[in-house]
Design goal:
The complex is a heterodimer of chains A (347) and B (249). Chain A is an alpha+beta fold and 347 residues long. Helix content of chain A is 64%, strand content 13%. Classes of the chains: A alpha+beta (347), B alpha/beta (249).
């Protein structure tokens, strides 16, 4: 079903747009066949209506023959043949109209003769014009869909953001600290607030420099550090050049969260989280590495957060970004490679 | 005196329980554990009356710990958030505490514990059933935990050849070895993926990947020959289930 039929308003607008086109057709034909306005309207009005319907058909054709991936000669030949059919259809219908009209005005059939060829040519052109417009429509639709997809992914990321486990466990740590070390309890409240505030703030933007994303991940790790104590050790190794790379917000934080949830938390003795960022040949390579318990049930190992990150990367960069996961010998490693896009300036 | 064990992998979480328990005159904390194995060991060693148990712990989770210990103790789950687990708690645990919790809520839990310990006649719900209740729909067990004296075996389900019911016990056969565990065959059947494990007989569950062929035995009964040469009986209804499971892509 053509998208125009899904909406009464747009269908109405489409047919309205044919009024000036029909008028133009009328002017040209009446000049070619020396017709008065009554005869012109009587013939051209139904022809225009027919043409309006015929010119919806390229929608199907354009879907089968996408601009990218169809050879030029094929595009040209298929659409030309279709346009010829369209004008042939009109030429087939017009003689009937003339026959009917000849009752009121004898001789109109002979008089219209020179108009026929012009009409055929105009139909051919209108059809091709419609093909071109349909390709534009298709491109707009594709980009709109891509946007919806990426927006959805981002939204999901935000919803997944404040993991209830993390929140309740952190609050429990604060509850414990209030009697042991009130100053530390207050500090943790502040760290937790910082994290929540920043993740909300950054989540609203479409892209942020890596340095802000890393700062967010650090705040997250500060909070978890209180919870896990010496079980959690973090090693960070970042290229200064990587700081300025534009990335989608909340790209790194889910990786770190994963490393804790499925790595450190599954090990009684804890372990080391290794984070690194490198810029190499126009690409940013970011990795997070953590130990995990290979015997743990897999629902602890596989991260839903990672699926989400992968979808967002695809929506944003297409084939230009990669997310690789490698789990071997008790070490879980996630690598992200994205094109290096330098931040444009202060927001 | 109620003798209690605290099992939680986070030091701060254990601290809260310790602090609240210090106000009680009738409870004594005999041991603290930071992982599942240590908890199983400590319970065998100390034989406590009460266990405060975190669900998510390294090595073995809270449910696995319960499967491995003799259920004659009061259990209070202490967890941050677990939508499926709460269902199980409702059914079986003495109480559950959602982190963070206050002293009043903690007192309520302890009151329930005292009540339960005062009337020991109440039958405990077997841990395996508890686990099934807590399982998310569509998810199946990925490993089986079995205690053998002081040792704990963790057996990934893919390594199971077949399981045979022997009175109150199940014998898990894996690569020529067998392990005994106290559990009913129907509760095990429920927790295993029906695409991989089929109950072919009243007292046999078999791993589909281990079957090499089925032979007729009598008019109604058949025998499944396993890839290692072992033979297990297949009942008539078991054969139907087997055909159904194998027909699925």
């Amino acid at each position: 079903m053509h998208p125009l039929f899904q909406n009464r308003n747009s269908l109405f607008a489409y047919f309205f747009a044919w009024v000036p086109l029909g008028a133009m057709l009328g002017v040209v034909i009446s000049a070619a066949a020396h017709l008065d306005w009554r005869a012109t309207v009587a013939i051209i009005a139904p022809v225009t209506l027919l043409l309006a319907f015929v010119c919806l058909s390229p929608w199907y054709l354009c879907r089968v023959l996408p601009l990218n991936g169809t050879p030029r000669w094929k595009l040209l030949s298929h659409h030309s043949v279709a346009a010829m059919f369209a004008s042939a259809l009109v030429l087939f219908v017009v003689p009937f109209l003339l026959q009917v009209f000849a009752r009121f005005r004898p001789g109109i059939e002979e008089q219209f003769e020179p108009g026929l060829r012009v009409l055929a040519g105009m139909c051919f052109l209108f059809f091709l014009l419609s093909v071109a417009l349909h390709y534009v429509l298709q491109a707009l639709e594709t980009s709109r869909q891509a946007e919806v997809l990426s927006r959805e992914a981002e939204l999901k990321a935000l919803k997944a953001q404040v993991n209830p486990h993390f929140l309740f466990n952190s609050l429990n740590s604060i509850s414990a600290l209030t009697t042991i070390d009130p100053a530390k309890a207050r500090e943790m409240c502040i760290r937790l607030s910082d994290f929540l505030r920043n993740s909300l703030r950054l989540g609203e933007r479409t892209s942020i420099p890596l340095r802000e994303e890393l700062a967010l991940a650090s705040t997250y790790l500060d909070v978890e550090q209180v919870r896990f104590g010496k079980r959690l050790r973090v090693i960070q190794d970042f290229d200064t050049a990587s700081d300025a790379c534009e990335v989608p917000p909340l790209l790194v934080q889910p990786l770190v969260e994963n490393a804790i949830k499925h790595g450190i938390a599954s090990l009684a003795e804890g372990g080391e989280i290794n984070m690194s960022a490198r810029v190499h040949e126009g690409r940013l390579r970011f990795s997070v590495e953590n130990p995990f318990d290979p015997d743990a049930p897999s629902q602890r190992k596989s991260g839903f957060g990672l699926v989400n990150v992968r979808n967002r990367l695809r929506a944003r960069y297409g084939n230009m970004a990669r997310l690789d996961i490698d789990a071997s010998a008790g070490t879980y490693r996630v690598n992200i490679t994205v094109p290096f896009i330098k931040e444009t300036g202060k927001p | 005196m109620i003798r209690a064990i605290i099992a939680d992998d986070e030091e701060l979480a254990r601290h809260i329980l310790r602090e609240y328990l210090a106000r009680q005159t009738d409870v004594e904390v005999v041991c603290e554990c930071d992982n599942g194995f240590a908890t199983v060991k400590a319970i065998a060693e100390w034989k406590p009356d009460l266990l405060f148990l975190d669900v998510q712990m390294p090595k073995l989770d809270g449910f696995e710990v319960l499967e491995l210990v003799d259920a004659n103790l009061a259990v209070v789950f202490v967890t941050a958030y677990d939508q499926y687990a709460t269902k199980a708690f409702d059914a079986a645990a003495v109480d559950y505490l959602l982190k963070p919790f206050d002293l009043t809520r903690f007192q309520t839990a302890l009151d329930r514990v005292r009540l339960k310990l005062a009337s020991p006649g109440v039958a405990a719900v077997p841990a395996a059933e508890l686990r099934n209740a807590a399982q998310a729909p569509g998810r199946y067990a990925e490993r089986i935990v079995i205690r053998d004296g002081a040792r704990v075996h963790v057996l990934p389900v893919a390594q199971i050849d077949y399981v045979e019911a022997q009175e109150d016990y199940l014998a898990f056969h894996s690569a020529g070895k067998s392990f005994l565990k106290q559990q009913t065959i129907s509760s095990l059947e429920q927790s295993l993926d029906p695409k991989q494990f089929v109950r072919v007989h009243r007292s046999f569950i078999v791993n589909l990947e281990r079957i090499s062929k089925i032979e007729a035995y009598t008019k109604d009964a058949r025998i499944a020959i396993l890839s290692d040469g072992g033979k297990i009986p297949v009942s008539r209804s078991g054969y139907l289930k087997l055909k159904e499971a194998m027909a699925e892509p």
